[in-house]
Amino acid sequence: MGSCPYCAATTLDGDTICYSCGRVLANSSIMEHRIHLQKDRHSNVSAYRMTSAPKRRGMVQNDRGRTKNILKGRKNRFRSLIMLGLVAFIMLSPQAREMTIGKIGDVKEFIMNPTLGYLVYDIEADYTLNRIITLENQDLDTTEYYNETFPISQDIYALEGTGPIYTYTDGTPDTPNQKIQDVLATEIRIDGQSINVPLERSAIRSYAEAITTPSGHKIWWPGTSGSGNMFCTGGPCVKVTAFLGPGQSMSYEYLVTISTKSYTWWSDVNEGVDPRIPGFSFGILEEHSGTYDDFEDRGSGERADDFTSMRWYNKNRPNYAIDATGASVIAAVTAIDSNLPEGNQNAFKFAKAAFDYIRENIVYYTDPGSGSAALSGPACLAAGQGDCDEQTNAFLSLLRAKGIPGWYVFGVLSSQSYTTWEAHAWGYIQLPMSTEWCNDNNIELDSCYVEASVDVTNNKWLLHTASALIEWIEQPDPNGDGTYINAYYQSLNYGDNDNDCYEKAYLDCRITRERVFALEGPVSYGGGKFPVYS
Length: 534
Hints:
alpha+beta; seven-stranded antiparallel beta sheet; 28 strands
């Protein structure tokens, strides 16, 4: 009997393997020689030699006590692969090289943010959006009418109007404004007719001059020179009046064709803002922001005069949509301030913190929870939930508590793939650069500010994306009660010619309406893509 030299288990004469550890036993001359080579030759002790720790990376000791660099061959093979890849890259076409670099950039961005979700948007996009309206007269006794008002979408610039973004004091040419939405055409298809709606504000067609279709429906664009349902309120519009007999139904379409581009008013690459987005070179940084007191010296103080009321928009509402005096708003402002430097006066810092506060504390829901009127800013904060209108009410309420101008924007928003669309509301805000920064850059104080889009429900801070079609941006309201906003919300007018809706609880007594959005033709992309991280 013997023992295994590896595990010391008992073995029998003639065994060629150890049935405990499975190793080949050193019965042959070859195995005897291998074991002998592993013995410590210096001490002649019958023990197996342990190799010493490597002195540097890749160096190992073999069974004869010699050292060897096992990475040398790998390095040479790796260098060969690198050279081969470089040669292949050089041989690619310029377009292929550009695409490859873009893919590498996308991978790098994802690696830098491995746990963050993000949406990808196009820098430029051209498309035609179609609203398909379906009407049905559920009154089986009487012919009824229905009237709808559509805002005529306008060209939109990075700074409202066509004037320059910045004006300089040292003779430097003004920074030109940039168009971010170019409306190319507006069309109505109804009753077998295609009607092109003029885009010029000066183009007026009164109700008396309305286009009448073979079925008696009327289309006109009356301008804003009068009041009542026969005119537009707060901006140019086109109106459609349909007449349906008992039980009749119909469909018509309203199409808008635009060329649009994404735009950023924020230049912080450390926060993930892509420098390729138009506007990056002229955007604002937190450290360059002015104070709450600077608004009076920017843009002639007009935004501060028009859009800083502590309470705003209560027409046809049970309360004010924007209300900086509400208890939940005051509590939220206190919480935000507690996380900012003591005595903070930086307008950007507070506005961004208010944006983040809404993002972190208000969840989105799609089912209205407040009846016919959207939740006010205070009610949205108290409930901890709200849709796009309601979260915008909350955000603007927080801004106005600090005197930061904020106003409404309405339009239609698509998914990043342009496959789904929905009506949407968000905000615009004004932020000043500091007087010191303006002077250091020779920019006139009156032009030293940004007016930027903020969509809190979609994490778009100072960002407009090409996937958003802007229908209407709030204008200063001469009545001071939200008449313009109310006109946008109250764009439908239903007839009840036989006055039976009240007794029928507004069921089966008038025309009903359904609306869907759809693309007309393909989307034309351009300029590349960029991510927005959630």
